[in-house]
From TrEMBL:
<dbReference type="InterPro" id="IPR002328">
    <property type="entry name" value="ADH_Zn_CS"/>
</dbReference>
<feature type="domain" description="Enoyl reductase (ER)">
    <location>
        <begin position="10"/>
        <end position="344"/>
    </location>
</feature>
<dbReference type="Pfam" id="PF08240">
    <property type="entry name" value="ADH_N"/>
</dbReference>
<dbReference type="GO" id="GO:0016491">
    <property type="term" value="F:oxidoreductase activity"/>
</dbReference>
<comment type="similarity">
    <text>Belongs to the zinc-containing alcohol dehydrogenase family.</text>
</comment>
<dbReference type="InterPro" id="IPR036291">
    <property type="entry name" value="NAD(P)-bd_dom_sf"/>
</dbReference>
<keyword id="KW-0862">Zinc</keyword>
<dbReference type="InterPro" id="IPR013154">
    <property type="entry name" value="ADH-like_N"/>
</dbReference>
<keyword id="KW-0479">Metal-binding</keyword>
<dbReference type="InterPro" id="IPR020843">
    <property type="entry name" value="ER"/>
</dbReference>
<dbReference type="GO" id="GO:0008270">
    <property type="term" value="F:zinc ion binding"/>
</dbReference>
<dbReference type="InterPro" id="IPR011032">
    <property type="entry name" value="GroES-like_sf"/>
</dbReference>
<dbReference type="InterPro" id="IPR013149">
    <property type="entry name" value="ADH-like_C"/>
</dbReference>
<dbReference type="Pfam" id="PF00107">
    <property type="entry name" value="ADH_zinc_N"/>
</dbReference>
<protein>
    <submittedName>
        <fullName>Alcohol dehydrogenase, propanol-preferring</fullName>
    </submittedName>
</protein>
<keyword id="KW-0560">Oxidoreductase</keyword>
């Protein structure tokens, strides 16, 4: 079968002929329905090397950590799955038995440092292929929902969902405001998730006008990145500021913007891995503002994300690519030319 492989640091991924994988004990072989292209993959193949980046992300492996598919074959000891049923893949793979893993939070596995890989598609072979093997505990049922469009939910849905859930106390009640900075794969779903879970008014910004238009169709008020951007955002909140900011870019200027517009006792969650710095000062920000980062989400939360999808409350906008076009999907992602999350559908 064909697989899109990350084969060497600082080089573009390439389509390679590989053998069809065999599910090990406790694993399920999926025939891939869709695999989303996430901007984090770009960091893996453009920024990391022997010195910088987790050891678990050493080449080579098959990309694709946002995967859906149909059950094809069961490994030893696995039961309760029907061939042909559709599932979404929870990517993170912890040890499975520490406290964090026992609550479904493999992202914060206490034994992560000694694990051979971070996730399916991040160290372990992922979904940019015709078939992928997955531990049975990482499978979330999709029922009769479209599995191809569901693929981005595994990360572009789950990551903002986790961040929004942690910010819910800030967005409760009426008259609250949320700001989403960066309206790509994650950002478009962040706008929809905030609207699905809260009564907050959503403000959205992106350096790309087309991305802002898409967010506006999902009900967000948009502000472009002009010189008086912070003033404009504050004005939309009646001067009070934003209760919860989600920065899906994470470079110094976007964190700075977030901290400029956040309300007293508000919360800023940096999701984007732009690795920007911020010079905190006691007098520089309103009292009790929280500035935090986040990483992906829990398997239980992925079940909740699928519930929202099946109820029609969130819908990933996708641009489809064949497996042969998978390199092009990443090229368009890097160039900012996508009209939705790129999903490779073999
Ligand atoms: P994407 O490329 O689909 O979207 C990024 C968006 O940000 C684009 O619309 C782009 O125009 C916009 N943008 C870029 N620079 C900007 C700026 N200075 N101001 C305003 N907008 C700007 O990327 P994505 O896949 O949605 O990922 C977003 C970020 O989240 C990436 O950094 C990715 O690595 C990160 N990520 C983090 C986690 C996590 O667990 N923390 C999980 C997945 C992705
Ligand atoms: Zn663990």
């Amino acid at each position: 079968m064909k697989s899109l492989r990350f084969d060497a640091y600082k080089s573009s991924p390439e389509l390679v002929e590989t053998g069809r994988p065999v599910p090990g004990p406790g694993e399920v072989l999926l025939k891939v329905a869709g695999a989303g292209a996430c901007h984090s993959d770009v960091a893996v193949f453009t920024e990391f090397d022997e010195e910088f980046g987790p050891a678990q992300l050493r080449p080579s492996f098959t990309l694709g950590h946002e995967t859906s598919g149909w059950v094809e074959e069961l490994g030893a000891g696995v039961s309760g799955f029907e061939k042909g049923d559709a599932y979404l893949v929870y990517g993170p793979t912890g040890c499975g038995h520490c406290r964090a893993c026992s609550r479904g939070q493999d992202t914060y596995c206490e034994n992560a440092a000694t694990m051979p890989y971070l996730a399916i598609g991040l160290g372990r072979d992922g979904g940019m292929a015709e078939y992928v093997t997955v531990p049975a505990r990482n499978l979330v049922p999709l029922g009769d929902a479209d599995p191809v469009a569901a693929a981005p939910l595994a990360d572009a849905g789950l990551t903002p969902y986790h961040a929004v859930k942690k910010s819910l106390p800030k967005l409760a009640g009426g008259g609250t405001y949320a700001l989403v900075i960066g309206l790509g794969g994650l950002g478009q779903l962040a706008v929809q998730i905030i609207s699905a879970l809260t009564g907050a008014t959503v403000i959205a910004t992106d350096s790309n006008p087309a991305a802002m238009e898409r967010a506006a169709t999902n009900g967000a008020l948009t502000v472009d990145s002009g010189p008086d951007q912070a003033e404009q955002i504050r004005a939309l909140t009646g001067g009070r500021g934003v209760d919860a900011v989600f920065d899906l870019v994470g470079i110094a200027p976007t964190i700075e913007l977030a901290m400029k517009v956040v309300a007293l006792q508000g919360r800023v969650t940096v999701v984007g891995i732009g690795n920007g710095s911020y010079d905190w000062n006691f007098y520089g920000v309103p009292y009790e503002v929280e500035l935090t980062s986040t990483y992906w989400g829990t398997v239980e939360e992925l079940h909740e994300v699928v519930d929202l999808y099946r109820a029609g409350k969130i819908t990933p906008q996708v641009e489809l690519f064949s497996l042969d076009e998978a390199p092009l999907a990443y090229e368009k992602l890097i160039a900012g030319e996508l009209a939705g999350r790129a999903v490779v559908s073999p």
